[in-house]
Amino acid sequence: MLIHRNASLAVALLAAGLLVSATAPATASSHIAAASATEPASLTDVQKASSANAAQLGDAATIVCQINADRKARYELPVFVHGVLNQAAADLGNRYANGTFSDTLFDEIYSRTLAPLGGSVYASYKILGSFSSDLQYVRAVEQAIYSSLFAHNLQAVGVFQNAGVYTLVLATGLTATPATVDACPASPVHPYYPPGSGGGGSSNVMNGIDLPSFLCSLNDKRSAAGSSAFAVHRALENEALQQAKQMVSLGHYTVDGPRKVDQSIYDQNVAVKKLYWFAGDRYTNARSLVELLMASYADTVLDPSYSVIGVAQLNGFWSLIMAELYSSVSVRFACPLSIDEVTFVS
Fold this sequence. Notes:
346 residues; alpha+beta; 7-stranded mixed β-sheet; 5-stranded mixed β-sheet; 14 strands; 32% helix; elongated
């Protein structure tokens, strides 16, 4: 499947497919801690762990390094990983995986997030699968959309992977680009975001997290385990931000205060049966955070009794709070495409 969208008919054609970027999973250099409480509030069982640095599919560094090596062999300049293209790829890939993909989806994504990247932006995407390795995928996609990947005016890509199915987004005509391009970036890749985008690339960023991307990725894991999708609780979201601010002030991550998560939530008269919260540092992006949580606390994250969350990050320090409510929660979209599609409760 090859779909594209052009902002201007005057722009030079780039027959391409967009790479969905599955940003590299969290590595052993990332840190995480967790704690839980039940009403009445009492902090218990603080745990610390590092995620395994296991090889996984969807490593953007591996994919882009190989593509750029092959472009160099054809005397073409390297491309870079663009954060907004990454999000577009993730939106497409997740919708494709959960069966909510539509023929008009890319037009919606293009109009909302890609067209503002330049007056003559041309973008396209390609969904291809399934593969057992990133290099196997690169060889296949280079054959499938050869003229697009080796186009002289290609500037950037976004890449995403889900269960061996890859989404690739390509773009040219971008107004803002990095001063230098690393042809073979280290993993995890830190995508480029245009100035003024807030590091998230779109208005989908709330409290430093691309919230739709985070929910889509996390809810996909829960759905596979038979658990319901998370809604976002306003009080938990606000407390997660306060926890991130506290960690920035302290200079290290913590789940044990001095500002107590459980006490702060109960002081707001939020009726919850139980709480579980996590904290860590070295945040890179929403998808990597989900992979880190799954590597260290999958059983807790997938626990069907939890129905609402709050998440935030600031200067690399992040906080995630989950809660079980006394009342049931109905979620409109398990994989929201935008903030407008996120289910909020209070």
